[in-house]
């Protein structure tokens, strides 16, 4: 299976998601949050740095739960300005 390249908008949305999750993590360690969400610290690192701009839905949901964020809030904050 060949994945189509991501659009600039998709990459930008992934970077916004990463920033939001990093900010929400605050002083908590990456390892602590990843364990709480049931993912590897490397997966969280990739999401936070934008190297995994399209993480799986259930990964994002688990991170939102671990960080006390709502999925609605995340979706709204990740939308481009003016949408």
Short description:
The protein has 83 residues and is mostly helical.
What does this structure look like?
- This protein is an all-alpha fold.
- 64% of the residues lie in helices and 0% in strands.
- It has 5 helices and no strands.
- The protein has helices at 8-25, 30-37, 41-48, 57-67, 71-78.
- Helix 2 crosses helix 3 (41-48) and helix 2 (30-37) packs across helix 4 (57-67).
- The longest helix is centred in the N-terminal third of the chain and has 18 residues, at 8-25.
- The mean pLDDT is 91.
User: Which spans have pLDDT < 50 for at least 5 consecutive residues?
Assistant: none
H/E series, N to C?
HHHHH
Helix content: 55-70%
Q: Helical region count?
A: 5
Distance between the termini: 32 Å
**Strand percentage:** under 5%
Overall average residue pLDDT: 91
> What is the overall shape?
globular
Radius of gyration: 12 Å
Number of strands: 0
Alpha-beta content class: mainly alpha
Largest sheet: none
């Amino acid at each position: 299976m060949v994945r189509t390249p991501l659009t600039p908008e998709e990459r930008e949305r992934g970077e916004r998601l990463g920033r939001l999750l990093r900010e929400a993590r605050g002083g908590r360690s990456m390892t602590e949050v990843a364990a709480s969400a049931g993912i590897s610290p490397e997966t969280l690192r990739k999401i936070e740095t934008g190297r995994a701009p399209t993480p799986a839905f259930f990964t994002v949901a688990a991170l939102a739960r671990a960080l006390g964020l709502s999925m609605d809030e995340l979706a709204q904050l990740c939308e481009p300005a003016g949408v």
